[in-house]
Amino acid sequence: MTGFSFRLVRASLAALFFALIPAVASAQQAGHAVPGQIGFQPSVTPIMDSIVAFHDHLLMWIITAIVLLVLVLLIVVIVRFNQRTNPTPSKVTHNTLIEIVWTVVPVLILFVIAIPSFGVLADQQTIPDGERTYLGSQIFGGDVAVPEPSLTIKATGYQWYWGYEYMDEGVDFVSIMLNEEQREANKPDQPRLLAVDNELVVPVNTTVRVLVTAADVLHAFAVPSFGIKVDAVTSRNNETWFHARETGIYYGQCSELCGKDHAFMPIAVRVVEQDQFDAWLAAAEEGSLADANTALMASIQ
Ligand SMILES: [Cu+2]
User: Fold this and answer.
1) Which of 124, 163, 169, 227 is most buried, most CB within 10 Å of its CB?
2) Distance in Å, CA 217 to ligand 1 centroid
3) Are residues 130 and 209 both part of a single domain?
4) Is pTM, for the whole model, over 0.85?
5) How many angstroms separate the CA atoms of 236 and 151, rounded?
6) 106 with 80, same domain?
């Protein structure tokens, strides 16, 4: 290896190492991804709790064990079966016991993964009725009670922005990404490509049912901190739900390759206190969404 390429490799490894350190420290910001992040965005709903628990307490162990097993096998093969230490190769072409083991063991692993996985999927697909309990962070132990929805919002995917409709309140508006000049002028503390003009406003500690559809092509409604992702299909109503326990602003994006501006239709959900939501909704119902948003921002700061 030449001195130059060695320095290059060493510099790359050092860069990788130092890139990982702040990621661990800064990965705790809720609502959007941060540079160098590894792992999920922090959870604020029971569904995301169960996804995180499933990932951290089962999948990571299985993945780590498989990686270590394969590493050990590779090392054994390299050490024991290279040409120097093993000059006369064996003529064995198959071994029935090993073939059974490497068929049955993966099936058992998939079975172990499937059981909690189906539980999490069922929770995502079942709108709370106030009686069913959900897995939450206690996925391998207890349950979480979730009240039935008290707010229903329809999210419609358009080329290329989102429309929101508060079904029982008669408030509807569209939500369009801010370009760089608009963002710097109006919402400088919000992330680039995620800030929108009109955020979806919902109350904290409330179960929200989201009806998801599309008006033109396929889109998908996804908010990582809520653990939701559902297809938006023309002439069809899909359903999802969330119950956010912390106020703040949570971002998502369209998650279906829908066309040229697919990457520019962010979802911004602002979770506020109930009284702030009531005031915002009352102002929005009177007809001026801009005034409602201005008053809401004043009450938050
Ligand atoms: Cu889309």
Assistant:
1) 227
2) 8
3) no
4) no
5) 20
6) yes
